[in-house]
Amino acid sequence: MVKRVIAIAPGKIILHGEHAVVYGKKAIACAIDATITIELCATDDNCVSFHLPNVLCQKDALKIKIESLKELLVRCQSIGRIESNILDWHEKIKEFVASTLIFNGNENKLLNLALSSCLFAYMKILVLDGQCNFPSVFVKIESNNLPLGAGLGSSAACSVCLATTMLVHAGIIHPKENDQGITLDDNALEKINETALMLEKLLHGNPSGIDNAISTYGGAVVYHNGKISHISSLPSLQFLVVNTGIARNTKSLVSSVKSKMTDFPEVVCNIMQAIHEISVQAEGILRDVEKSHSQNHEMDLKKLKELLKMNQHLLQSIGVSHPKIDEICKIAKENNFSCKLTGAGGGGCAIVMFDEATEQINSLINELNKRGFKNWKVKLGCKGVQLKQIDK
Question: Is the confidence at residue 352, as pLDDT, over 50?
């Protein structure tokens, strides 16, 4: 068992396919250079400690005694095996966290959910799968320009890092150290992705799996019916991420779309198919660039801009936009840029595509700043989860 392990994983933007991907349609996502870092250390204080200093403004580490966790395991096991009762186990753990720790306000509601997910991972990966006999550990979670609840895959990046550090600590996966640093083979990445998806289901109900996939593998991926294909080379595009400042709930938004699908199946099915076709068109453009280094950059850019705008209108039609997103899109349009929501919508972030040679982007940034919208440029296609350090 290692003494210390540090993992870092990226967030993402979804170019096309959010919501439709849940119904078996195609989606395209790209890793961005905004990340989550998790450090897991073995301790000898007979506690499991979690510290989230700049994720949920948690000042001090929260400690839970091992003896309490042993009692919690007994209560969970009375339900049945964890594999067939995952949600029931998670509910027991959430009840434990709520009764053990003092929470006030919405921020601490999120902290409760985050800690419940961390404790579930501890029980499943370290205690049960790894048979580590309740190890004392300290877990520190930090955000590197990846805001929580903004549609940029922060929870998936956390889940991927949590899975990676705990799987390494338990000896379930075995990274290799060489001249390239610490590397993870395909089997290890597959195990990380599978474990992270399990944790994501606790947080979001029935996620598509695209967020944890892009955080695990990085780069740009096309996700369709659970299958991932990679786009190894992207054209020279830049994106501005604009935060509405409105927190949204992925689970409730997915549920609202499901209700519309039930009430208006023919209409919503056609909208989902249209979103799918946009993803297909965008993938074709991106793969043409990948294969032949297309010389028709201006035409490609124009098509991608139009697809972005069309997708935003379709997402508006199923009720997952937000007045703040609509305002950002209006400002972008007035400055001759294309814009759409990214992620679940209902707040969160919007993305604006621009050519790296375009000077007018500064005018847009100034206008967004005047309206109080935080924004920043991002690089696309960054690396997936990486191990930064392992101390044995």
Answer: yes
Q: What's the one-letter identity of residue 255? A: S
Amino acid 146: pLDDT: 87
Tokens encoding 254: 């997915």
- Compute the distance between CA of residue 69 and CA of residue 171 in angstroms, rounded to an integer: 21
- Burial group, residue 383, by CB count within 10 angstroms (0-12, 13-18, 19+): middle
For the chain, the average pLDDT equals 88
32-to-2, 203, 266, 286, 380 alpha-carbon distances in Å: 29, 22, 35, 17, 5
Cβ pair 127, 62 in contact under 8 A: no
Q: Per DSSP, what are the bridge partners of residue 240? A: 352, 377
**Active-site residue (options: 211, 215, 256, 279):** 211
Q: What is the pLDDT of residues 71-121, one digit of tens each?
A: 999 999 999 999 888 889 999 998 898 887 655 444 467 777 888 899 999
d(CA 166, CA 95): 23
Annotated catalytic residue within 116, 154, 155, 256:
155
Q: What are phi and psi of 64, to 5 degrees?
A: -125, 125
Sign of the Cα pseudo-torsion (243, 247, 250, 256, in order) = negative
CB 240 within 8 A of CB 34: no
Residue 391 bears catalytic tag:
no
- Residue 128 burial (C-beta neighbours within 10 Å; 0-12, 13-18, 19+): middle
Q: Say how far apart CA 240 and CA 77 lie, in whole Å.
A: 47
Q: How far apart are CA 49 and CA 140, in angstroms?
A: 8
* Residue 211 annotated as catalytic: yes
Alpha carbon distance 227, 221 (integer Å) = 10
